[in-house]
Design goal:
By secondary structure, the protein is α+β, with helices and mostly antiparallel strands. The chain folds into 2 domains: 1-280, no CATH class; 308-405, Leucine-rich Repeat Variant. It is 43% helix and 7% strand. The protein contains 18 helices and 6 strands. The protein has helices spanning 17-34, 50-58, 72-76, 121-139, 156-163, 209-213, 231-237, 244-249, 259-262, 282-285, 289-293, 297-304, 313-328, 334-343, 347-360, 363-375, 379-396, 399-404, and strands at residues 38-43, 87-94, 145-148, 167-168, 174-175, 183-190. It has a 4-stranded antiparallel β-sheet with strand order 1-2-6-3, sandwiched between helices. A hairpin with a 5-residue loop joins strand 4 (167-168) and strand 5 (174-175). The longest helix has 19 residues, at 121-139. The termini are far apart. Bound molecules: cobalamin and iron/sulfur cluster (2 copies). The site of cobalamin has 37 residues, from helix 2, helix 5, strand 6 and helix 7.
C-alpha cells in the first residue's frame, strides 16, 4: 500500500512514462482503498460523442429534463470544468449483486431499481471521492482535483468507457464482461497527467435483448434512449401528474426500471460487490406498496432521507405506488387506495388513487369512488374521479347501468 504522504516532485508529473504509470497505479489503489470497486484513468480531450448528445437533445429525447441541455459545452469538453485539468480518474461502484444480500421480496422492492435500494450513492461516492481528492492534493502539492457523481456536466459513461471501465451497451449503459452493468460511476478531474487505460471493444455483438424486451420501446435503436418513453424517467424525474397514456406504460415499477439490464446476458453472472451501505436497511425492507401509499411525512423522512428515492419526493413515490397498484389490478389494494383518495392531502396522489381504483374496478372500488366524489372539493381530482367511475362502472355493471345512472 503506498504511503498517504507520498509526494512527487512537480517536474516529474508529466515526464517519464514509468513514473506516470506508477503514479496512475498509486491513485487507482487509493481509489480502491477509498471504497470503490474499480478505477481507471483517462486523458481529458473533447468528447467524441458530442454530436450524438446534441442529436439526442435536438430530437427531444431528454423529455422534461431541461437541465441536461444547459452547459453543453462543458459536457463536450470536460477540460473547461477545471482549469489545467489533464486527466480524470474514473471510478465504479458495484451495487448488484452484493455479497450475501438476500433478493428483494414483496410487492414493492422487486419493482424498485436495484441501485436505489440502499443508501444514496451520491452521498457514499461523493464522500469517498472528496476524501480521495484531498489525499491526492495533499500528496501532490500544487495539483487540483474536482470530483463528480452523476450531477456534474459530464458525459460520465463516455468518459468511463474511454478509461476502460466498461463499454457502452446498446441499452446505453456501461457494460463489462466480468461486472455486467450494475455499477455506478463517478470521476475526479485532475491537473495531474495520468497514464490512460485501454478502452474495451464492443461486447454486444449481434445481441438485441435489451431493445426487444424494453416494455415501452424506449430504446428505438441501439445506443439511443428516448427518455419520454422510459419508465425510469417517469418514475424518478417527472414531477406532478402522469399524462393518461403514461400511467399504463410504467406498469408496476415504483422507482426506476431495471428491465434492460435484467435481460442483458452480461448481468447473469456478474461479479458481486461488497459495500455495506448499499444494502437495504431493515426499516425500508419491511415496507410494501400499501405501506408506501399510506406513509406520512415523518415516516417518509425516517425511511427515505438517506435513500436515492427521495429524488421523487413523498408525493412522487405515492403517485408511483398508486399507479403500480392500479396496474397490478388486485382488489386487495382497494382499501388502501380508498383511504388515500379520501385522506391524502396531495391532489396528485388523490388523482392517481382514483385512477387506480377505476383500473381495478369492482363494487368496492365503485363505492369508494362515489363516496369520494361527493366530498371532493378539488376540480381536477373531481374529474379524475368521474373518469375512473365511468371506467370502473362500465366494467362492473355493463354499459346499460351507466346510461341508467
Ligand atoms: C439523464 C440520465 C438518465 C436519464 C436518461 C438516460 C440516458 N440513457 O441518457 C434517465 C432518467 C432515463 C436515466 C435512467 C437510468 N440511469 Co441515468 N443518468 C443520467 C445522467 C445524469 C446523464 C446521462 C446523459 O448524459 N444522457 C445523454 C445521452 C445522450 O447519453 P447516452 O444515452 O449515454 O448516449 C450516448 C450514447 O448513446 C452514445 N452513442 C450514440 N450512438 C452510439 C453508437 C455507439 C457504437 C456507441 C459506443 C455509443 C453511441 O452517445 C451518446 C452521448 O454520449 C447520467 C450521469 C451523467 N452525468 O452522465 C446518469 C447515469 C447514466 N444513469 C445511471 C443509471 C444507473 C441509470 C438507470 C440504470 C437507473 C434505473 N435503474 O432506473 C437507468 C438506465 C436507463 C438506460 N437504459 O439508460 C448511471 C449508469 C451507470 C452505468 N453502468 O452505465 C449514470 C452514469 C449515473 C452514475 N453516476 O452512475 N438516467
Ligand atoms: S429503463 Fe426500462 S423503460 Fe427505460 S429503456 Fe430500460 S427497459 Fe426501457
Ligand atoms: S442486452 Fe445485449 S445488446 Fe443489450 S446491452 Fe446487453 S449485450 Fe448489449
Amino acid at each position: 500500500m503506498p504511503p498517504a504522504t507520498l509526494s512527487w516532485p512537480k517536474s516529474r508529473m508529466t515526464e517519464p512514462l514509468s513514473d506516470r504509470r506508477e503514479l496512475t497505479e498509486t491513485l487507482k489503489s487509493w481509489a480502491l482503498e477509498a471504497g470503490f470497486t474499480r478505477a481507471a484513468a483517462v486523458k481529458l480531450v473533447p468528447s467524441s460523442q458530442g454530436h450524438w448528445f446534441r442529436e439526442w437533445l435536438d430530437r427531444g429525447d431528454h423529455a422534461g429534463m431541461e437541465w441536461i441541455s444547459r452547459r453543453v459545452e462543458l459536457r463536450e469538453d470536460p477540460r473547461k470544468i477545471l482549469p489545467g485539468a489533464a486527466s480524470a480518474l474514473c471510478v465504479a461502484l458495484q451495487y448488484y449483486p452484493l455479497q450475501d444480500e438476500p433478493e428483494a421480496e414483496g410487492d414493492l422492492w422487486p419493482r424498485v431499481a436495484r441501485y436505489a435500494r440502499g443508501r444514496d450513492y451520491h452521498d457514499i461516492m461523493g464522500k469517498q471521492l472528496k476524501a480521495l481528492g484531498r489525499r491526492i492534493e495533499a500528496a501532490f502539492p500544487g495539483s487540483s482535483t474536482r470530483s463528480y457523481v452523476d450531477t456534474g456536466p459530464i458525459l460520465e459513461r463516455e468518459l468511463a468507457a474511454r478509461s476502460g471501465l466498461g463499454v457502452q451497451g446498446k441499452n446505453t449503459n456501461l457494460l463489462h464482461r466480468q461486472w455486467g452493468s450494475y455499477f455506478l460511476l463517478g470521476e475526479i478531474l485532475l491537473t495531474l497527467d495520468l497514464e490512460p487505460g485501454e478502452p474495451i471493444s464492443d461486447i454486444c455483438g449481434r445481441c438485441t435483448r435489451c431493445l426487444d424486451h424494453c416494455p415501452t420501446d424506449a430504446l428505438p435503436a441501439p445506443y439511443r434512449l428516448d427518455a419520454g418513453r422510459c419508465i425510469s424517467y417517469w418514475t424518478i424525474e417527472h414531477r406532478g401528474a402522469f399524462p393518461e397514456q403514461v400511467r399504463e406504460m410504467v406498469g408496476d415499477w415504483v422507482f426506476g426500471c431495471d428491465i434492460c439490464q435484467e435481460v442483458c446476458p452480461w448481468n447473469y453472472k456478474a461479479a458481486a460487490g461488497d459495500h455495506e451501505r448499499l444494502r437495504m436497511p431493515p426499516e425500508r425492507r419491511e415496507l410494501d406498496l400499501q405501506g408506501l401509499l399510506g406513509l406520512d411525512r415523518e415516516g417518509y423522512v425516517e425511511r427515505f432521507i438517506k435513500s436515492p428515492m427521495k429524488r421523487a419526493k413523498l408525493e412522487g413515490l405515492k403517485r408511483n405506488a398508486a399507479v403500480a397498484m392500479g396496474n397490478r389490478g388486485s382488489a386487495e389494494y382497494v382499501p388502501a387506495l380508498s383511504a388515500s383518495l379520501q385522506g391524502d392531502s396531495d391532489t396528485v396522489v388523490r388523482r392517481h388513487a382514483a385512477w387506480a381504483l377505476g383500473k381495478i374496478g369492482g363494487a368496492e372500488a365503485v363505492d369508494a369512488l362515489r363516496a369520494a366524489g361527493q366530498r371532493e372539493l378539488d376540480a381536477e381530482v373531481g374529474s379524475e374521479i368521474l373518469a375512473a367511475l365511468h371506467r370502473a362502472e362500465s366494467r362492473t355493471e355493463g354499459p346499460e347501468a351507466l346510461n341508467a345512472g
